[in-house]
Amino acid sequence: MNHRKEIKNKFKNRERLFGGWVSYAHPSITETFAKAGFDFIAIDMEHATISLEQAQRIIAASQSEGSLCLPRPVSHSNDWTKPLLDSGADGMLYPMVNTKEEVRNLINLNKYPSMGKRSFGVNRAQGYGFVFDEYVREWNSSSILILQIESIQAVENIESLLSFDEVDGVMVGPYDMSGSLGVPGQTTHPSVLEASKKVILACEKFGKSCGSQIADVTQDGLEKHFDQGYTYSIL
């Protein structure tokens, strides 16, 4: 829990962070990524075939090597959120968040009362009951909530999305953003870059962390990524 708070504070302080995507279920892949020193591992359940059972193994593998784990579920449904959190996820990375109503719903799913409406259970996250009290006491202040900004609607609503204290940061999704702007797959199209810059500037205004995935993992590519104003990258 202390490590989770440390990384959450780095998000809050807009410090530079590195995450790694995991799209395959075997935990040895996650262990390798975590050993490499990533600050967090993001499980891609949206565009991969990773099941809830497999996700729990990935979460455990990531945490065993000192990396936080933030699953990206298929949807905003509690059918995904509840079991992933109870499996021990350190927070969530939600795809395609467009409205403040969606943000409020996600906060309700992620946070315990009185901040939210998450239900109380006993599973891996709560140490099967051995650390229930500590987990519940610390969860609201230590868990991480990241929103993906992937459409022109989200860009237009960005300030309202960032207005929630419970939101730790956002991730620009360049592929869906390009599709929303009518140039699918053209992630460096001027309209995509312009929309992304609006998100970056809004995050600066609201003091939120802002990241995106990066294809060019060379030193030059990373420097260009951060020079654009991003505070974290997912490789």
UniProtKB/TrEMBL annotation:
Keywords of the record: Lyase, Metal-binding
Against InterPro entries, the record matches this protein to: Aldolase/citrate-lyase_domain, HpcH-HpaI_aldolase, Pyrv/PenolPyrv_kinase-like_dom, Pyrv_kinase-like_dom_sf
Record's GO cellular component, any one? cytoplasm
Domain annotation HpcH/HpaI aldolase/citrate lyase: ranges: 19-212
Record's protein name: HpcH/HpaI aldolase/citrate lyase family protein
The similarity annotation says: Belongs to the HpcH/HpaI aldolase family.
What GO annotations for molecular function exist for this entry? aldehyde-lyase activity; metal ion binding
Could you name the domain of life of the organism this protein comes from?
Answer: Bacteria
**A Pfam family it matches:** HpcH_HpaI
This chain's source organism reads: Leptospira interrogans str. FPW1039
Looking at the keywords, is Transport present? no
